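@channel anyone free to eyeball this complex?
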Amino acid sequence: MEEILRKKAKELLESGEVKVVIGYGWNRQRTKTTPVFITDAADADRLVWNPLCVNNLSVYLTRKFKDIQAMGKPAIVAKGCDIKNIVVLITEAQFKREDVCIIGMTCEGVVYRQELWKGELKPEIMPTKCHNCDVRNPHLADFVVGEKSSFTPPETPAGMVFDKIKALDSRGQADKWSFWINEFSRCIKCYACRQVCSLCYCERCITEKNMPQWIETSAHPRGNLSWNLTRAMHLVGRCTFCGECERACPVNIPLNLVNQKMIQVVKDAFDFRSGYDEKTHPPMIVFSPDDKDDFIK
Amino acid sequence: MADRILKKDNLGKLVASVNGNGGRFIAPVLDARQVVFKDVTKAEEIVTEYILARNSYKEYVFPQTEVVADFTVEKHGVDLKSREVEARETVVFGARPCEAASLSSLRAIFTWDYIDEFYTKREDSLVVVTVACTKADDACFCTTVDLSPESRAGSDLYLLETESGDYMVEAITDKGRAFVEKYKGAFTEGSGKAKTLVMPEKIGTIDLEKVSARLKDKNHYDDQVWARLTRKCIGCGACTFVCPTCHCFDITDEGTQFAGERRKNWDACQFDTFTLHASGHNPRHYQHQRWRNRFMCKFNYYPEKFASKGCVGCGRCIRVCPVRLDITEVMEEFSR
Ligand code: SF4
Ligand code: SF4
Ligand code: SF4
Ligand code: SF4
Ligand code: SF4
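replying in thread with the prediction:
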């Protein structure tokens, strides 16, 4: 797969069709992958593809990265789950489909964290998203690299995140509250969850608006709660469960639980799942007279 | 040479005595599947199998958020009352030799043009009990910045683990000696066989002198190399917040129109708002320029201004980085 990927990247750069290929490369010790930006066809051999390719590189397509946008049309190496975020970016008019060349990688799963890699991809080191993945064959791409995957996801989603949500749902209000207060208490306000998310593309986040200061910047319980709730709310109906925020969080806050719960709520309320169709607008940005209003009491 | 032995069975006694004296005992514990420095009350909570705690112990001398003053808005104007720092004896047990060396770097900045008592009072009552490393990972690079598991700088007590799980104690500073004297019930005579220390391989392609010399040359300021190596940085604060030498903070007011508190909160040069002017202009417009600042701070400004190190090679920033931006790769580039 790597060879085909490199060849494709080379062609794209040589023909001038794209100016940069955003993909994965090795770190110095070749123990971890890290994002690379290939602008010269001669460097295309730096591209790698393996189960350590965890990052959702679609974040680099956003307006947070003006320098990358200025390089010219990009090609991006993307797994199916990463493509979901690209789809959301298109539906939210961040760029047009033709503005990006998607090199879709067929995928048999990645590791939850690179540190877990011991040379073999075992189910227990894969994130919940991979066990339930219905986009192992990329659903939107200019080219697909790799053998077709024959994986079919379980009918009822299964895995750690779903189990934990079920367990939490069965607990009382007060219990749930104390669970989250405790989890959020560890937050150090590094905003890695926001920065790594391709859907958190605001140039001025609400946390940075300080006249007045809507969200307290202090990492005390009040500030942490307001930040984490705000982050969650701003991703309702948009988050694709790519898991980047949880992976990036240095203090292991289980953000995937928040994200997946929101996804379920949106699915129940609007029968909508984000990231699948670049022509359908997400429910939170459209209005229709027959929208449900039974929550207004 | 070991002065004393701290038997593992006596560790509980030490924890209890420090806490009993109104002090704090900070040690690595398991919290949310990570090894983290936290207050402990029982020796059983302390983890011994770890490379480095996820957080730096700097938060015990330089808290992530703290109130420095209270204010009320009166008819005649604003009444601002400064808070007093209440520094208690604080023992950090299980620091590693690299991060022990970071305290002098923090002190240098917090006493540079202004004596920040919120820092100095806490540091004065901090006792650093270092346990030398028997394990390292691919992010550790102390030996490349001229430190090693054998470095004593910054430690008040320097401990070697023995094969039987006890500690051989070497008192490095007067503070350390006074501590052993104060809690002499926990420290006994004796000896043991120390476990072999790990020795991370020095990164041969890095030359600190060259790095500094090249950074001094202002022509490198706008070098394309910054963008090339660091455009992948997503601008979170993770690396700076876990770094034992990063020290930037922001002052913010919280409260109502009439009263509130003034807080000192960690800030990070990696945030785009760090240098954003009120006019809307940002002198560090691109993320790679912010990353350049972090590197310049550690390998140019620090060596130029202070005798202490800007980076102690603990590797925390590498481990925590969501895009695995490795500071040693940039050091390597600037060693050419
Ligand atoms: S969710 Fe699917 S596409 Fe994404 S990494 Fe897992 S298996 Fe691959
Ligand atoms: S899982 Fe996290 S990073 Fe991914 S889209 Fe959702 S909020 Fe963003
Ligand atoms: S990544 Fe984690 S610690 Fe950082 S701001 Fe987000 S929730 Fe808080
Ligand atoms: S820059 Fe990185 S390696 Fe150096 S002291 Fe800070 S966290 Fe440790
Ligand atoms: S170097 Fe890594 S950890 Fe530091 S700001 Fe950039 S992305 Fe975040």
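from a first look: Chain B has a mean pLDDT of 95.
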